[in-house]
């Protein structure tokens, strides 16, 4: 179950805005706020079965967007690659001796900052 | 017009798979193969007006996906950032003297290769 929560959470981050308002709210209540189907049904004044059906349709929609656009996969691939850039930049930084000029270190710092910036904004 | 073609081309790259088959084909014929509305109508056996309506709806859909997900904007932002990483990596490379060890140069080469790889796959 935990894995599913993480998976839906990621899909929801990327494609949540493409869901209908009701689908969006129900995914949020169930997966992010951890409410039960019965609790959601009470709040929205629909049956437990009704909540379940909307939830399933919303999940299917999220998976189908990922099938078509693959943004989560791309995001995870890019994350790994950007972390490698950071690793290499750190290694270069460590190996530059104190005598080696400060400009080189600044360039490496810039590389690290940009890589982190891309990581954060994706 | 040229700018619009480029813009729709980019949106189509990112969101084309979310269009209906007919919308997809008509965008392709009009923007990528440069056919006229009348020519497309003839091929698909629908009126020129019918083609126009589907085209407009398809364009609206592409713009609306961009409004919601902003993938084209993100792609263009990342492209600029990755190019900066490449620039800095090139500068570091130039400034490393021949005596400075080959391992450092290899790390920089790796950074450049990964940045290029991300650029190509986005």
Automatic annotation (TrEMBL), chains A, B:
Superkingdom of origin: Bacteria
Keyword DNA-binding: yes
GO function terms (MF aspect): DNA binding
Keyword field: DNA-binding
Entry-linked Gene3D superfamilies: Winged helix-like DNA-binding domain superfamily/Winged helix DNA-binding domain
HAMAP family: UPF0122
Recorded family membership: Belongs to the UPF0122 family.
Function per UniProt: Might take part in the signal recognition particle (SRP) pathway. This is inferred from the conservation of its genetic proximity to ftsY/ffh. May be a regulatory protein.
Protein name: UPF0122 protein BET03_00820
Originating organism: Thermohalobacter berrensis
């Amino acid at each position: 179950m935990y894995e599913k929560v993480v998976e839906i959470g990621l899909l929801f981050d990327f494609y949540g805005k493409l869901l209908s308002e009701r689908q969006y709210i129900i995914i949020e209540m169930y997966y992010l706020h951890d409410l039960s189907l019965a609790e959601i049904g009470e709040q929205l004044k629909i049956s437990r079965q009704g909540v379940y059906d909307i939830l399933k349709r919303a999940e299917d929609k999220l998976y189908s967007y990922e099938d078509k656009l693959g943004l989560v996969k791309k995001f995870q691939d890019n994350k790994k690659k950007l972390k490698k850039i950071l690793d290499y930049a750190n290694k270069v930084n460590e190996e530059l001796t104190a005598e080696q000029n400060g400009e080189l270190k600044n360039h490496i710092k810039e590389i690290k900052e940009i890589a982190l910036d891309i990581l954060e904004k994706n």
